[in-house]
Design goal:
- There is one protein chain.
- The chain has 112 residues and is an all-alpha fold.
- The chain has one domain (3-111).
- Helices cover 73% and strands 0% of the residues.
- It is built from 8 helices and no strands.
- It has helices at 3-13, 22-31, 37-41, 48-58, 63-68, 71-79, 81-84, 86-111.
- The longest helix is centred in the C-terminal third of the chain and has 26 residues, at 86-111.
- The chain is elongated, with a radius of gyration of 16 Å.
- It starts with a helix and ends with a helix.
- Residues 47-93 form the TM2 domain.
- This is TM2 domain-containing protein.
- It is found in: Membrane.
Length: 112
């Protein structure tokens, strides 16, 4: 694939991934054939900052976990009122990483 397209994709979507994943993503995209480029362009990634804001405002209800696709954990947080507040506070520190992990998993599904 064209390196200019790949670099533009990396620049515009780097906030959705951990920084140590970016070189690996770049290599995989460069090795990819052009037939999957349209599919890559249409992927919608979760914004980790938005997920963090939702976690701060409504984390006790599990909405943050529902948004990133962790339905089981979302139900658990909902039923326990965010683990009696403790789980909600812990998620403030780890939810951005979880969102970025979900984004990389979504991209990996398309790449393989």
């Amino acid at each position: 694939m064209d390196s200019q397209k790949v670099d533009m994709f990396i620049m515009s979507n780097s906030k959705y991934f951990e920084s140590h994943h970016l070189p690996q993503i770049r290599e995989q995209l460069l090795a990819l054939d052009d037939s999957k480029w349209g599919l890559i362009q249409t992927l919608q990634f979760q914004d980790p900052t938005t997920i963090l804001i939702v976690s701060l405002l409504a984390g006790g209800l599990g909405i943050d976990r529902f948004m990133i696709g962790d339905t089981g954990l979302g139900v658990g947080k909902l039923l326990t009122c965010g683990g009696f507040g403790i789980w909600a506070i812990v998620d403030w520190f780890i939810i951005m990483g979880a969102a970025k992990d979900k984004n990389i998993a979504k991209l990996q599904q398309v790449l393989y």
